[in-house]
Design brief:
Elements: E1 8-9, H1 12-30, E2 38-43, H2 47-62, E3 66-67, E4 76-81, H3 86-105, E5 110-115, H4 121-130, E6 136-138, H5 146-157, E7 160-162, E8 169-170, E9 183-187, E10 189-190, H6 201-205, E11 209-210, H7 213-226, E12 230-234, H8 251-259, E13 266-270, H9 279-287, E14 294-296, H10 304-309, H11 316-329, E15 334-341, H12 348-361, E16 365-370, H13 388-411, E17 417-425, E18 433-437, E19 442-445, E20 455-463, E21 468-472
Parallel strand pairs: 1-8, 2-3, 2-4, 4-5, 5-6, 6-7, 9-12, 12-13, 14-15, 15-16, 19-21
Antiparallel strand pairs: 10-11, 17-18, 17-20, 18-19, 20-21
Bound molecules: S-adenosyl-L-homocysteine, iron/sulfur cluster and FE3-S4 cluster.
């Protein structure tokens, strides 16, 4: 959005100019000895970052690049970063620090840092001062002009930092490389307006802005025609989709439109903010056969006092009521959540309210985190008397409870036959194939990898806390 509240859309001419610059870079690189240039892209963080990296790789391919996992082989190295917790940032600084050796071996290699960390002024400053081997730093808002930024560095412009705190824009028509031919990520919106008090995302990803339905529909249609079987719609809060658009469309309406696209595919989406998820969404999910009966509905805490301090916009009771409504509409709904333990000022009693909430809801799976202070967020300024050790004890209690619940829910599948989509290799020699049920449960299978992309009916023979195991019928 720009200052008057309208989303700024990058014009087709501006996108075309970036693609023309890709061709310029291609020409520069073509002349060099030793064959085509190679790029090494490393991605940290959430699916939104994965989707962004796929666009960056699309642009690199336009520049004539091949790809490698080995930074020592690469002419250009891109680290796409995550800022959600301190650990994520530490990991990235470790990786970036190591790249100094790559630069020593190959002084012509271009090293780029992008993504959510790169949007923070403090990070840029640290890179500027202490990581002088990094040539280019740009935040998610500047992703669409990566070719132009890179061209500047390649043509002797020196180090470049593009982290101006723009509210964010939308660019259509950027190239993309999708690694899997089965699963695809489609961002339907960018940014976040919720400002949960612990969270850095609104500061690094800018304001909420939605792609136009026609652009999303044509992308999904194209993917279905190409044979993709599972399409996940991405946004920090998909339920506020469309609020910034002139045309009257909301997320439930978008799902209904996508669902009309003929073909054999499944639509998933994440994330739903509980304050905005409601009967309208649950009804659309029930009525759309292509939409998976799966909901990631992050509760964060089971204590209404903590939820208020987190600025989540719902109480424990309101959340439980949403779960009740969702399950009334979809009795076989697969429900997952995110939890933060140890928010500043949280007491043991409040942490145990979270444990009691998960016992009550019985989620299929949880993503659990210990609170990590993010400089610049309101929660980072709150007193935080509980020690790390105490928080760890609460966290372990939560995990024990969830592991037991997940194992119990999984055990109930044993003996049943379920339909799955085979999506690749599991990495487990005894059960080499990985697959997902309609609700997104992981099933490891026997069979060979040529089955990837196919549906199968599977008899579940075993289970543990994290997965089901089965044989194709
Ligand atoms: N938009 C999504 C969340 C994206 S971040 C939503 O609102 O649900 C993914 C998860 O990281 C969050 O749900 C939260 O559980 C966790 N998280 C975010 N900030 C955190 C912090 N400062 N410390 C610990 N966990 C955090
Ligand atoms: Fe962060 Fe809250 Fe926005 Fe999710 S909804 S990205 S937790 S501010
Ligand atoms: Fe991390 Fe940015 Fe995603 S902070 S979780 S990569 S939106």
């Amino acid at each position: 959005m720009n200052e008057n509240g309208k989303t700024q859309r990058i014009s087709e001419t501006d996108v075309q100019r970036q693609l023309a610059i890709c061709q310029e870079i291609k020409k520069r690189w073509e002349g060099r000895p030793g064959g085509p240039s190679l790029a090494c892209v490393q991605t940290f963080g959430c699916q939104q970052n994965v989707a962004d990296s796929q666009r960056i790789m699309g642009m690199l391919q336009e520049m004539g690049c091949g790809f490698t996992q080995d930074p020592y082989q690469a002419d250009i190295i891109l680290i796409n970063t995550c800022a959600i917790r301190e650990n994520a940032e530490k990991k990235v600084f470790g990786v970036v620090g190591q790249l100094v050796h790559v630069k020593e071996k190959n002084p012509d290699a271009v090293i780029c840092l992008c993504g959510c960390m790169a949007q923070q002024e403090v990070v840029a400053e640290r890179i500027r001062r202490s990581y002088r081997h990094v040539d280019l730093v740009f935040g998610p808002q500047a992703l669409w002009k990566f070719p132009e930024l890179l061209y500047g560095v390649l043509t002797g412009g020196g180090r470049a930092f593009s982290i101006a705190s723009e509210r964010g824009a939308i660019a259509e028509g950027l190239p993309v490389i999708r690694e899997s031919g089965v699963k695809a990520w489609v961002s339907i919106m960018y940014g976040c307006n919720n400002f949960c008090s612990y969270c850095i995302v609104p500061y690094v990803r800018g304001r909420e802005r939605s792609r136009k339905p026609a652009d999303i529909l044509s992308e999904v249609r194209g993917l279905v025609e190409e044979g993709f079987r599972e399409i996940t719609l991405l946004g920090q809060n998909v339920n506020s989709y469309g609020k910034d658009l002139e045309e009257p469309v909301d997320f439930a309406g978008l799902l209904r439109e996508i669902d009309k696209i003929p073909g054999s595919y499944l639509i998933r989406f994440m994330t739903s903010h509980p304050k905005d998820a409601g009967e309208e969404l649950f009804r659309a999910m029930t009525e759309c056969p292509h939409v998976a009966k799966q909901l990631h509905l992050p509760v964060q805490s089971g204590s209404s006092r903590v939820l208020k301090a987190m600025n989540r916009g719902y109480t424990r009771e309101q959340y439980l009521e949403k779960v009740r409504l969702a399950r009334a509409a979809m009795p076989d709904l697969i429900l997952t959540s995110d939890i933060i333990i140890g928010f500043p000022g949280e007491t043991e009693e409040e942490a145990m309210e979270t444990v009691s909430l998960i016992e009550e809801v019985r989620y299929d799976a949880l993503f659990t985190f210990i609170y990590s202070p993010r400089p610049g967020t309101p929660a980072a300024k709150l007193p935080d008397p509980a020690s790390r050790g105490e928080k760890q004890v609460w966290f372990d209690k939560l995990l024990d409870a969830q592991n037991r619940i997940s194992a119990e829910l999984h055990r109930a599948y044993v003996g049943q036959t379920v339909r799955v989509l085979i999506d690749g290799e599991s990495g487990d020699a005894a059960w080499p194939l990985s697959s997902r049920t309609q609700g997104g449960r992981l099933v490891h299978l026997k069979g060979d990898t040529t089955l990837t992309g196919q549906y199968a009916n599977v008899k579940i023979t075993d289970s543990n806390t994290w997965a089901l195991f089965g044989e194709i019928e």
